[in-house]
Design goal:
The chain is globular, with a radius of gyration of 15 Å. It is α/β, with parallel strands linked by helices. It has a 6-stranded mixed sheet with strand order 2-3-1-4-5-6, with helices on both faces. The chain starts with 8 loop residues before the first strand and ends with a helix. It has a single domain, classed as 3-Layer(aba) Sandwich (Rossmann fold). β2 and β3 form a beta hairpin. Helices cover 48% and strands 14% of the residues. α2 runs antiparallel to α3, α3 runs parallel beside α4 and α4 packs parallel to α5. The longest helix is centred in the C-terminal third of the chain and has 17 residues. It contains 6 helices and 6 strands.
Length: 175
Amino acid sequence: MKHPAGRKAAMMGFGGGTTVLAADDCYRFGLLLPPLPETIKNELKKIMPVTGNIFTNPVDFNLLYLSPEKVAQAVRVVGSWPGIDLLILHLKVESTHATLVEQKLLEPLVEAFICAAKEVKIPTALVVHAIHTTESYHEFLKVQQMCSEAGLPCYPSIQRTVSAIDKLIKYYQTR
């Protein structure tokens, strides 16, 4: 991961409960989640339905999992905001009634994240929650390989992600 300029992060992903817990982990490790300005929220509302999504920071785009192109658009919108230093994206392999694997959506979503992460020009990490089944863990390993080949850090939990980012920032501060 490139060196973040500071500790202001934006978090984007699927699942309101997970997103709230993620915010707690960010604060625990000293990452700040500044509120999104109205201009960014308005841009997101052009991409995402207002119902079922959360337009704060963290951003919950729960209803976009069927549309990887729109996920990438939303990441580009938030990632272009100069009010943040880094971006953390997250998704769950086991999602809603059918898993992302069963719906053949996991790889397209990860590809959308990778593509958008390359375009936003700020340090970005992907978190893939996949701990419930052996199949989902195997899918996580595939995703981790995709991310490794693309140069995008990929972690199995938000806590490990923010801990790694915290250590990276401290390393550069003491260097």
